[in-house]
């Protein structure tokens, strides 16, 4: 190259997200269309489905969106929702845990034995029960991650074995009554945040909105300092306003009856903590990495076996917590605990909410969205005095639709080169 010819300076690549945001509202519409064409649907399908379900049931029965019915929905979704949170972690690996329903039933029986038969402090009994659930999950994870037994087989064996242990623990009594105190009182139907104080729901709404605003501003400052794309203040304010509308409307509706059930508050706290773990910690990134590609994760130096075992331990722990929630609904531990369609509903909630069965994609908020859909269907059909068989068929159809959407979405992403 001649000395007088100077090569042109390299042009720095510009992140397309910055260009989109510079276009303002039009840019977001363009980005939204691009995501739809690329198969990145996110939570859109389940939100649309929820709006349709609520509209249909409200037209059929004006009591559906009443305060009392919304309180029922918000309370009864929490127990199965806890099982669904644990399943989300497992599904992110592309695996399945078929034992969660049996573990939840065993947990309720063990808690009853600890607290009632042996007179152990209820809070200590609850802690022991949850630790046993974590230990059961570790056993499943060990056989899966270390021995190489497929997760389906390991957890299917757990489904049968832990159910048998529950029957043996309860013995001839068949059921044990639980006192309305300690954790059972907090999780029971008669417990509301701040003792039915009308301020309770609005305090929760305010805390949620403030947390989103503060967290978004801190994240914006952090990313701006690092020189990477960040959300503009206008977008942050739009998100905060949207959450505020939803939160305060929900608070107003729930306050017209009794307020926010304590079980729902604990469920939401669990969602927030788990969402932070998955999105903001090294462990969460490892879970997504293993779910996306085991070989790539192994080459990156991730201890795949450790991640697998810990995920099943989390699933077992949340199954035990869910068992306590479900026991508190009737204040009894019975032989029917963990039976019926509980397992299928927990799996359906995670999948309907948007967590992929193929691994590597989803979030814990899927448990909330999925349970809102399922519990809304159950409650709506109960109001219409329709047979339970109809409920099963509709829930099954919604689950199939969710899996079909997930499959088509993944195929579309591969076609567009974004998978």
From TrEMBL:
Organism: Actinacidiphila polyblastidii
Origin: domain of life: Bacteria
Protein name: Xylose transport system permease protein XylH
Keywords tagged on the record: Cell inner membrane, Cell membrane, Membrane, Sugar transport, Transmembrane, Transmembrane helix, Transport
Transmembrane spans: 41-59, 71-93, 100-117, 123-144, 151-171, 191-215, 236-254, 260-278, 307-328, 340-358, 365-384, 390-408
Coarse class of the protein's main subcellular location: membrane
InterPro entries for the chain: ABC_transp_permease (IPR001851)
Membrane topology: Multi-pass membrane protein
Cellular compartments annotated: Cell membrane
Function: Part of the binding-protein-dependent transport system for D-xylose. Probably responsible for the translocation of the substrate across the membrane.
């Amino acid at each position: 190259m001649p000395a007088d010819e100077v090569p042109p300076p390299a042009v720095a690549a510009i992140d397309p997200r910055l260009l989109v945001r510079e276009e303002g509202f039009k840019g977001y519409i363009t980005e939204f269309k691009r995501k739809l064409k690329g198969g990145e649907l996110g939570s859109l399908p389940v939100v649309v489905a929820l709006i349709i379900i609520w509209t249909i049931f409200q037209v059929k029965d004006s009591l559906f969106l009443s305060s009392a019915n919304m309180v029922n929905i918000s309370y009864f979704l929490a127990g199965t929702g806890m099982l669904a949170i644990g399943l989300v972690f497992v599904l992110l690996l592309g695996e399945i845990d078929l034992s969660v329903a049996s573990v939840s039933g065993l947990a309720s029986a063990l808690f009853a034995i600890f607290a009632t038969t042996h007179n152990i402090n209820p809070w200590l009994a609850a802690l022991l029960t949850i630790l046993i659930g974590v230990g059961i999950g570790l056993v499943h994870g060990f056989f899966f991650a270390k021995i190489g037994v497929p997760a389906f087989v390991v957890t299917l064996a757990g489904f049968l074995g832990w159910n048998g242990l529950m029957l043996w623990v309860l013995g001839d009594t068949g059921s044990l009554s639980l006192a309305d105190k300690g954790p059972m009182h907090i999780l029971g139907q008669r417990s509301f945040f701040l003792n039915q104080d009308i301020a309770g729901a609005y305090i929760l709404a305010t805390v949620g909105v403030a947390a989103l605003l503060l967290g978004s501003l801190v994240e914006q400052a952090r990313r701006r300092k690092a020189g990477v794309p960040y959300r503009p203040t206008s977008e942050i304010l739009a998100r905060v306003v949207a959450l505020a509308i939803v939160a305060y409307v929900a608070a107003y509706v729930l306050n017209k009856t009794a307020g926010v059930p304590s079980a729902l508050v604990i469920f939401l706290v669990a969602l927030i903590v788990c969402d932070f773990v998955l999105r903001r910690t090294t462990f969460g990134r490892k879970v997504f990495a293993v779910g996306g590609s085991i070989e790539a994760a192994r080459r990156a130096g991730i201890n795949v076996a450790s991640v697998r075992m810990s995920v099943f331990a989390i699933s077992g722990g949340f199954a035990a917590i869910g068992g306590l929630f479900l026991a508190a609904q009737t204040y009894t531990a019975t032989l029917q605990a963990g039976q019926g369609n509980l397992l299928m509903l927990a799996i359906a909630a995670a999948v309907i909410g948007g967590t992929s069965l193929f691994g590597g994609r989803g979030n814990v908020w899927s448990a909330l969205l999925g349970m809102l859909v399922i519990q809304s269907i159950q409650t709506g059909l109960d109001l219409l005095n329709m047979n339970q068989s109809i409920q099963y068929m509709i829930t099954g159809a919604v689950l199939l639709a969710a899996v079909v959407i997930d499959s088509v979405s993944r195929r579309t992403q591969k076609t567009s080169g974004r998978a």
